[in-house]
Write a structure and sequence with these properties.
This is Alanine dehydrogenase. It is a single chain. The chain is built from 13 helices and 15 strands. The protein folds into 2 domains: 184 residues, Rossmann fold (3-Layer(aba) Sandwich); 169 residues, Rossmann fold (3-Layer(aba) Sandwich). It is globular. By secondary structure, the chain is of the alpha/beta class. An 8-stranded mixed beta sheet has the order 3-2-1-4-5-6-14-15, sandwiched between helices. The structure holds nicotinamide-adenine-dinucleotide.
Length: 371
């Protein structure tokens, strides 16, 4: 199959959809891989590394799209990319269509086959192509929080692990899923005193079991959140209610209970944020202060560590890419119902119920297209 990997053009997006080692896997299976010149630069993968892996480098993005059957990307296609999509294309990327009516219509009009990373499921539950980015964001949240606690950043001037004779900082993580567990684990590793709040008892049981009591687990109630606000030096928001905006768990009034210079890191900001005073920020200006409390609310945290994020993402996408290249989209989805959950749009039909519902469009189940 002829596979094209364009350079990402969304503002401040440095990841790339295929690494040189991923390209090699495909070339060794007899596929043609064409990478846009400079596509890997932001993630530290030079054109020469792709060439050494057997891929071709294409300077003209129009030629790349024109010749490719399978297009691999990271972010949703931007307007000029939607304009390049044809019915012969299979597009494999993050799409997040339920929040993007114009993009959804653009993909419908293109006639292309569009498979979204984020809706692919796994036999053991969860969303395997979202999890790697949640892992990155969770681990980064502690790094960002520790930095924000420094005096020069507006923080209280507290070192997370403390030192001998000085108690460590208190870190509360609200939401103990993929982001939350990774954040809690990093904070533990740095020597902080860590509490995780969640509404799922089974999740709290898992964490208690896994960390053998080294982190406290607390059922999440308004009281528990208020106590966390009062006692913590760093609070990390990592809740997710699938299909809904994040609940506002720390209210503006609660800020007055917090220690001066305490830090809130709202990882759930991409779902609206779980603190009332959160608003999205960028890596260029990641924090702001409200009532003496530092807020870090970057909506695309993994973008700051583009190399690690690219490797983590492509490790997870690789088996699906190989299946698409070897079998074509129809057979690949037919062989794997979890992969089939990724199909969002095909030949002008919306095949993902939540997207059809969001915009009042007709829904066509994927299974009816696979025979
Ligand atoms: N900012 C970024 O760059 C970035 C990157 C990755 C993920 N995220 C976001 O981080 C959030 C968490 O993602 P995840 O992958 O960890 O999700 P997840 O589903 O693995 O975990 C969410 C957890 O929140 C818990 N929860 C729900 N309501 C709660 C409440 N009221 N109190 C306490 N816990 C509650 C759930 O029980 C679950 O355990 C999502 O909003 C996701 O979009 C942001």
């Amino acid at each position: 199959m002829h596979i094209g990997v364009p350079r990402e053009i969304k503002n401040h997006e440095y990841r790339v959809a295929l690494t040189p080692s991923g390209a090699r896997e495909l070339v060794e299976r007899g596929h043609t891989v064409v990478v846009e010149q400079g596509a890997g630069d932001g993630a530290g993968f030079a054109d020469s590394a792709y060439k050494a892996a057997g891929a071709a480098i294409e300077p003209d993005v129009a030629v790349l799209w024109e010749n490719a059957e399978l297009i691999l990307k990271v972010k949703e296609p931007q307007a000029e990319e939607v304009a390049r999509l044809k019915p012969e294309h299979t597009l494999f990327t993050y799409l997040h269509l339920a929040a993007e009516q114009k993009l959804t219509q653009g993909l419908i009009d293109s006639g292309a086959t569009c498979i979204a990373y984020e809706t692919i499921t796994a036999a053991q539950g969860g969303l395997p192509l979202l999890a790697p980015m949640s892992t990155v964001a969770g681990r980064m949240a502690v790094q960002a929080g520790a930095h924000s606690l420094e005096k020069a950043q507006g923080g209280a001037g507290v070192l997370l692990p403390g030192v001998p004779g000085v108690a460590p900082a208190r870190v509360t993580v609200i939401g103990g899923g993929v982001v939350g567990e990774n954040a809690a684990r990093m904070a533990l590793g740095l020597g902080a005193e860590v509490t995780v709040l969640d509404r799922s008892i089974s999740r709290l049981e898992t964490l208690d079991d896994r960390y053998q009591g080294r982190m406290k687990t607390v059922f999440s109630t308004a009281d528990a959140v208020e106590e966390a606000a009062r006692e913590s030096d760093l609070v990390i928001g990592a809740v997710l209610v699938p299909g809904a905006a994040a609940p506002k768990l720390i209210t503006r009034e609660m800020l007055s209970l917090m220690k001066p210079g305490a830090v809130l890191v709202d990882v759930a900001i991409d779902q609206g944020g779980c603190f009332e005073t959160s608003r999205p920020t960028t890596h260029a200006e990641p924090t702001y202060v409200v009532d003496g409390v530092v807020h870090y609310c970057v909506a695309n945290m993994p973008g700051a560590v583009a190399r690690t994020s690219t490797q983590a993402l492509t490790n997870a996408t690789q088996p699906f890419v190989v299946a698409l290249a070897n079998k074509g989209w129809r057979q690949a989805l037919k062989d794997d119902t979890h992969f089939a959950a990724g199909l969002n749009v095909h030949a002008g039909l919306v095949t993902y119920a939540a997207v059809a519902d969001a915009f009042g469009l007709a829904y066509r189940p994927t299974a009816t297209l696979l025979d």
